[in-house]
């Protein structure tokens, strides 16, 4: 054999091996392999183990599989062409099973919270052009729409086979976040985005197995909930949920203690409310505590540590647009932790995430310089539903490390410290985090002005004595009926967006630019 | 403090926290009966009750508060 032929054979072997490895790698990173296959295999492998504890009732993996099997056939037979399906976000087995039944059929879910005003859900249904809603409630409030009552369906046979490889670009879920124009905006997360998140999450060092008991205390309209139920189910662990009619903070603490939960993602605001009772809480079984949804103050976490002596604590950060979390920081137990204004850092980018700090001209800033945090990678979503203008503002392309990336502007002011740890200052725009929810103050002002016939209204945040953020609404009219205003806002906005303080002013103070002087208004917020 | 005085004081707290000047308490009342009674306002209400009646609940006691009647009984047992 000539030298060239030998080289050709070597080249062919190399090319084949490379192709095989690439194919295997791609396969491992598909939605099917990362999410659907592990879940389906756990349903059989751990059939007798508990998948959920809902309102003190346990449901095994077999029962969960049966529940998926009773919902899936009707989606396949009657609604095969509908991709975007509304899902009433109840706290029951049918609701969780619906998510997987939809994913197995290549569809996406759009959660509609049963306790949010119907007006808001109707806006979402209209915006997404939803034709079908899955609702496990005894009686549905969505009487004007085509609904399937998932509680009344019966199980005939297993419907857990999965052969179709749907495109990774298909949408897995759409979540609606507060929008400054008075209309919530939909964030579309694809199967590729969610796969990338799960892949990155496992890379952070959190080890979960079938013996774990995991807390799920977030509403399904909020993306942290997806980490809270999906991660345990992919490892055969049990998910403990909070019934909607329960007081979240106290019920969660009772679950943690009575059921000796081993994994919990919590918002710091929940810990603030539990703080007066920390000395009564002893949770040695907790292995991992994830802090999510808002900035974490170190002094609070230092006190919380005494309740969870054996837990590794992680601070996770991420906007909905970059799929649940995109950076993390592992809190040190026996060494000093860095802080900025008393807050724990948001840490380092998760695997596959590029995180840069830019100035107003999108130029990358060096370590130590403050600017807007922008993130790129497979976790970054395609964009907002039906909103090209917002997409143009929120996303941009830029060369970084020799590759063209599509970056999402987080709206968060950050810097890299000298050890490449990301430190978070706060928001650049007028968003606020209330009980972990992202809230546009402009959306609250919009609805107040609508009711007040254009009378000026300004929404500002303030910290209550516990340190949690609350909303105040200033109205430039001393004679309005506050109860009526609140009543109207409750019909338009979810509970966490209703101001807890209303202050009536004859005239708003103005600054030197003749704009409402928000700083002086804020001074009026005293306790 | 007698039961009537406790109910009066508690009614004022409820009206303030839940932003409804018309609220009238009854033993069977739960969060489902009051529009703005959610997890956040519940903790604010607990805090105001602790301040107004000068005692502190145990976390386990808060977890067992099934309705307003149980809350009134618990306050009664603490302030007597």
Query: Which runs of chain A of at least 5 residues are low in confidence (pLDDT < 50)?
Result: 14-27
What share of the residues of chain B does DSSP label as strand, in percent?
under 5%
Helix % of chain A is 25-40%
Q: What is the alpha-carbon Rg of chain B in Å?
A: 11 Å
> What would you give as the CATH superfamily of chain B?
ACP-like
**Termini Cα gap of chain A:** 90 Å
Main sheet characteristics of chain B? none
**What spatial form of chain B do the alpha-carbon principal axes imply?**
globular
Relevant terms:
heterodimer; A: 527 residues; alpha/beta; Rossmann fold; GMP Synthetase, Chain A, domain 3; five-stranded antiparallel beta sheet; 14 helices; 26 strands; globular; B: 80 residues; mainly alpha; Non-ribosomal Peptide Synthetase Peptidyl Carrier Protein, Chain A; 59% helix
Summarize the entry for a quick read.
The complex is a heterodimer of chains A (527) and B (80). Chain A is built from 14 helices and 26 strands.
Can you offer a commentary on this structure?
- The complex is a heterodimer of chains A (527) and B (80).
- In chain A, helix 2 crosses helix 3, helix 3 (61-78) packs across helix 4 and helix 8 (248-258) packs across helix 9 (268-274).
- Chain A has a nine-stranded mixed beta sheet, with helices on both faces. In chain A, strands 16, 17, 19, 20 and 21 form a five-stranded antiparallel beta sheet that branches.
- Among the domains of chain A are: 26-190, 3-Layer(aba) Sandwich (Rossmann fold), CATH 3.40.50.12780; 431-523, ANL, C-terminal domain (GMP Synthetase, Chain A, domain 3), CATH 3.30.300.
- By secondary structure, chain A is of the alpha/beta class.
- In chain A, a hairpin with a 5-residue loop joins strand 24 (457-463) and strand 25 (469-475).
- Chain A has 14 helices and 26 strands.
- Chain B has a single domain, classed as ACP-like (Non-ribosomal Peptide Synthetase Peptidyl Carrier Protein, Chain A).
- In chain B, helix 1 (3-17) crosses helix 2 (39-53).
- Chain B starts with a helix and ends with a helix.
- In chain B, 29% of the residues are buried.
- The model of chain B has no long low-confidence stretch (mean pLDDT 89).
- Classes of the chains: A alpha/beta (527), B mainly alpha (80).
- Chains A and B meet through helix 8 and helix 13 of A and helix 2 and helix 3 of B.
